[in-house]
Design goal:
The protein is α+β, with helices and mostly antiparallel strands. It has two domains: about 160 residues, 3-Layer(bba) Sandwich (FAD/NAD(P)-binding domain), CATH 3.50.50.60; about 170 residues, D-Amino Acid Oxidase, subunit A, domain 2 (D-Amino Acid Oxidase, Chain A, domain 2). The strands form three sheets. Strands 5, 6, 7, 13, 14, 15, 16, 17 and 18 form a nine-stranded mixed sheet that branches. Strands 1, 2, 9, 10, 11, 12, 19 and 20 form an eight-stranded mixed sheet that branches. Helix 1 links the parallel strand 1 and strand 2. It starts with a strand and ends in a 20-residue tail after the last helix.
Length: about 375
């Protein structure tokens, strides 16, 4: 039986990045993934994802984002491919909205390049948008979108080149740990390693009941639309955006090639389990977003081109879990990314590699403690 330094459960955005960072440091890495490379069954697909630094969720993310951006650019340089597209990010909503205030506070606190624009200026510069008259915009220039599937493929390719062993279509059924090793069981095999990294996304709750009990898996529908005037929705003419309207939020990513404009609702999906989530398109899925489009983005009110269903794995406070297991120091949990984690994928890989090779992370991650909820830990 081969004994590995580290076993990783899950090869989505986080698992593939962890594999790359661990393998490049010379560790013997085994990656177990229940689906295929860059699959569409979890939380890491969607063709394009928003990337931004003016973080309304919490200003403490910004130093992490500076490092994540550097690691993304490193991956681009190593692969000679473009993964980041800086078209800017426009946050829209009432000036008094907590998220708009959070974006402004974050941009000021960290001296991020940005500008404040009123509703009339938004309509003039970006004709696809039709904000309310009282809305304001915070336009961040150092933002845009990136390509999740390609990022996973590159992380996995470079990890494999450094010796990582990927086992596809291999579902993990259980794991156990002692102070000296971990054992991971699939339907057909048992694997042994010194350390374990659990990056199982929405399936984290099946593999770790104590932490998993805190998580909610939320169905999310991604939609692509054909604009009436596609030239206004190209990524060289339109920013990515997030629009806060009351207690709802909608987001959009400009079109690349003929894929159409990606526009959907952020949060608000039903709570499910990863294996039971409804992957079909329901009439109400389209109706909800089309109602938003007709009011606030009428140029996008064309035919629906495509859809995909993914999952958010939400913690009670919407911050990540990135920490050693409360009872096993040789087990690291990286999960609960709550719909805003993919942009941090290479940083998560670096943090995990730091913890397993040096004992501590160069990036402060106390915000993501596995014991902060004090339930079963």
């Amino acid at each position: 039986m081969t004994t590995y330094d580290t076993i990783i459960i899950g090869a989505g955005g986080m698992g593939a990045a962890c594999a790359r960072h661990l393998a490049r440091r010379g560790l013997r890495v085994l990656v177990l993934e229940q689906f295929t490379l860059a699959h569409d069954r979890g939380s890491s697909h969607g063709r394009a994802r928003v990337i931004r630094k003016a973080y309304f969720e919490d200003p403490r993310y910004v130093p992490m984002l500076h490092r994540a951006y550097a690691l993304w650019r490193e991956l681009e340089a190593e692969s000679d491919e473009q993964l980041l597209f800086f078209c800017g990010v426009l946050n829209m909503g009432p000036a008094e909205h907590a998220c708009i205030q959070g974006v402004r506070q974050c941009a000021i606190e960290h001296a991020l390049p940005h500008e404040i624009v009123d509703a009339g200026e938004i309509r003039r510069r970006w004709p696809t948008f039709a904000p309310e008259d009282a809305d304001v915009g915070v336009f961040e220039t150092d933002g845009g979108f990136h390509l999740p599937e390609r990022a996973i493929e590159l992380h996995a390719r470079f990890a494999a080149q450094q010796g990582a062993d990927f086992r596809w279509s291999t579902k993990v059924r259980s794991w156990s740990a002692t102070a000296n090793d971990v054992r991971v069981r699939t339907d057909t095999d048992e694997f042994v390693a010194k350390n374990l990294v659990v990056t199982a996304g929405a399936w984290l709750g099946e593999l770790e009941s104590e932490i998993g009990a805190l998580l909610q898996v939320e169905r999310q529908v991604q939609l692509w639309w054909k604009p009436k005037d596609p030239s206004l929705c190209r990524h060289d003419r339109m920013p990515a955006f997030i629009h806060f309207t009351g207690d709802q939020a909608y987001y959009g990513i400009p079109a690349m090639a003929d894929e159409g404009l990606k526009l959907g609702r952020h949060h608000g999906g039903e709570i499910s389990t990863p294996d039971a989530v409804d992957r079909s398109l329901r009439p109400e899925d389209e109706a909800d977003v089309r109602a938003y489009i007709r009011r606030h983005a009428p140029n996008a009110d064309g035919p629906l081109l495509d859809h995909a269903v993914c999952m958010y794995t939400n913690t009670p406070d919407d911050h990540f879990i990135l920490d050693r297991h409360p009872r096993h120091r040789n087990v690291i949990i990286a999960g609960g990314f709550s719909g805003h984690g993919f942009k941090f994928a290479p940083l998560v890989g670096e943090v995990v590699a730091d913890l397993l090779t040096t004992g501590e992370s160069r990036t402060p991650v106390g915000l993501f403690s596995a014991t902060r909820f004090r339930q079963g830990c």
